[in-house]
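Lab notebook, entry 600. We have the chain sequence and a SMILES string for adenosine-5'-diphosphate, and the next step in the workflow is to get a structural model of the bound complex before anyone spends time on docking refinements. Request logged below.

Task: model protein plus adenosine-5'-diphosphate, output structure tokens.
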Amino acid sequence: MPEEPAEPTDRSAVRSLLRLWPYVRPVRARWIGAALVAILASCLALVIPLVLKWMVDGPVADRDPGGVWLGAVYLLLLGIAEALLFGLRRWLVARPLAGVEASMRADLYRHLQRLPVAFHDRWPSGQLLSRGTTDLMLLRMFLAFPLTFLLVNGTTILVGFVILFAQEWSLGLVLLAPALPLMILCSLFETKYSLVARRAQDQVGDLTTVVEESVLGIRIVKGFGRHRSQALAFRALARRLRATELGKARLLAGIWALITAIPELAIGAALVLGTIEVADGNLSAGTLVAFLSTALALRWPVESIGFLLAMSQESATAADRYFEVMDAAEEPEPEAAGEAAREGDRGILLDGVEFRYPDADPGSPPVLAGIDLHIRPGETLALVGATGSGKTTLTALLPRLHDLTGGRILLDGEDIAAMERPRLRELVSVAFEEPTLFSASVGENVLMGAEGASAQQLRRALSVAQADFVHDLPQGVDTQVGEQGLSLSGGQRQRLALARAVVGEPRFLVLDDPLSALDVHTEALVEAALRRVLEGTTALVVAHRPSTVMLADRVALLSGGRISAVGTHQELLRTDAEYAWLMSGDRGAGALVPEEGSTR
Ligand SMILES: Nc1ncnc2c1ncn2[C@@H]1O[C@H](COP(=O)(O)OP(=O)(O)O)[C@@H](O)[C@H]1O
Ligand SMILES: [Mg+2]
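Result returned:
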């Protein structure tokens, strides 16, 4: 859980829930209409005791059957009207509130796409998933139910008490007596309940993360026989959530018992006192009947306050969780967008580049420090370094997936920090080590690299990446792949990722070990094709094998967070022991690369 729940002292449920207003605004007319209808329906129920009073003091006292029948018809009509009005309320709010939920979800999704990579590094995906699903559902239910009924029941209680006092003010006071202690109890309850509710929601997020990881990693779980330990971990989390939910239920049961019992006692006291008054002749029997049945009609509105408050607290914490994500800053756009002065050489220039991950230990040395590199226009530079030396990190800096913590990067003399992101990402194309395919057709996956590229460009990119196997798939380039489609082998996915990187014919190409999952024969083919692509672009290619390094004009060795040597492959082999060691070790490893592994 990235952020601890805020202390109850510095958060207010009302303030959290008020933030929903922009989403509710468009449907406010309907919502208010529905609330008014519900208030009307609820107050109709309070007319019933008045009809009873009329019946008891009138037709019943006079022994007039016709009058009693008329009274019964009135009561029936009142009941039907109440039911119809509540139905109308539901019809009024159901559709608009589903719209509110959908637009909040759309906003969350849009925002998640724009948050920096650093944010996603920090937040477990299950936490984001649960916020986009269960929390939003809770908020829709809050708008439909607790919010309306807090208003409706509050008004009903108010109107009810006016009627009670009008009937017999002394008995009214007896009923009002428990109000103050109940209010104090409710506010104590709310504070406690909001803490537990928040904890439960966060634990649902943790649980979601575990489920997601074990589904995505099902091959590893099975391959290593980890079912048991995964199941144990899951069970521990589920048990923790269960304990929290039970705690919630206990709190709710406690407040519910008090809210039910205390008014019940007050009604009992009013009954005794009222009967004495009727016996003394100070009160008509009809008035006492009306008084008591009004008090009984108010029982449900009063009792419901407890769980309506509980649901509101839960919704407030759900709103907090939603807005925690929405408040995270999106990638800032550069201030002087598009007006950066060109200076220096063309090609890619890294000037004193320093980078430290935002979540890294402040005392630790930066991953990259003082990197100076110049890749000339049209040149291909291979980046070589031991595992963990920061090669992937460096490639992520060029399309600004992370922002530099020091130095600058110039593309054709233009500082990337001053470029608008869409333009930067059009100029620079990347293929990552982990080729990700989305649930879409092969063609759509490749064309993600360049919006609006032609069918011819697509064919060319596929051929360059030696991905012609797609033409043999069941529906060719229209075959669905990814989670919801056909599983492709690691090598196939890597070739599609490569096609995606080159389809837009980018000026600058960044490839993070693009050939790692290819078998030797395919690798030779892809290399031959890549050679053609690389001729036309300025490229930075992370490489592990001598054969990939051979594609490059020069090689840079990344070691200890710095560029420790630059030169041709032959030069470095001769002069740099670490380089020679890396390249020789690779030959053994190369033979171990699995041929067309069967992972997605
Ligand atoms: N998202 C991240 N947050 C914090 N540290 C990271 C992150 N990604 C990588 N690192 C650290 O940065 C260093 C360089 O990693 P990486 O660039 O992936 O190396 P390479 O690609 O050369 O194997 C490693 O020590 C790694 O632990
Ligand atoms: Mg790497």
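Notes for the group: Confidence is low (pLDDT under 50) at residues 1-9, 586-600. Worth checking against the assay data. The longest strand covers residues 348-355.
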